[in-house]
Amino acid sequence: MINWDAHFCLPQHPQADFSPLSQLHAAGVNYVSINVGMDMNPVSQVMSVIAGYRATIAANPERFRLVSGVDEVIQAAADGVLAVGFDLEGAMPLMDQPEMAAVYARLGVRQMHFAYNRNNSVADGCHDTARGLTPLGHKVLQAVNDAGIIVDCSHTGRLCSLEIMAASSKPVVFSHANPFGLLPHGRNVTDEQIQACAATGGVVCISGLSWFVGSEQPTAADVARNVAYVADLVGTAHVGIGLDICVSQKDLDDTPPGDFDPARWWPESAGYRAGRPPAYVPPAAWKSLPLELRKLGMAPNEIEQVLGRNMLRVARATWL
Description:
The chain is an alpha/beta fold and 320 residues long. 40% of the residues lie in helices and 14% in strands.
């Protein structure tokens, strides 16, 4: 059995402490995708983070392993090591060059979405004007498919996500997104999006972030409730886990350089609260998830699908 957390955020800093990933591993996780940059992060910062993260992983082979294939994930689990991949939250680090996708893939990026909350030259953000996937976006999508990177529609506008899912030659995921039908937040995904994702063979991975589950102190039971909604709509083969835990660490400032305006990326009009950060389901919630899913009537084989087999299937169909 492979437990797969589709999205985790360490500080966007080359000296980030990886101890939180060890906590995730101790809770039973075998693979985790960690964010190495968003649309608001310049390429200089993204590359610095990738270099720092790769160095930390290489220096701790008994704890972490950067993987590029499904067989490597399975072997890492057998060896008692946490398998790690990187993800990009937005296409701006590609600098309008589709061929950059292959470069990032060689550096360890295994998953990517095309916009982060706001529109860019490639795609629409979920808190911006709907335009759809741009002509450049179609080229980037093909490049991402060809590079063996999982296409991720989290943070993407609804119309644009539907166009991405219709055009992708590989399964598409939402690595950390919850049902709009349970909580009408702009970052959550509608039934139409969930059904379109399932039609690609993809997976909607449930977040444990308070803003999107509607609980001030979210728990494994909140995550399970969201899992059940997606499973009831499209089946257990199309739902997974991406807790979206974000960690800050003392003395590490990962604020994007330059004229960075948080209110642009997380607008109060969309439901974000300035000065009031969200709460996260803790890594230990992974230990409670099987029980919470059983309480909702899921069979053991269905729970295994949700906790990792579904994302393993998508990776096998996508990674080169």
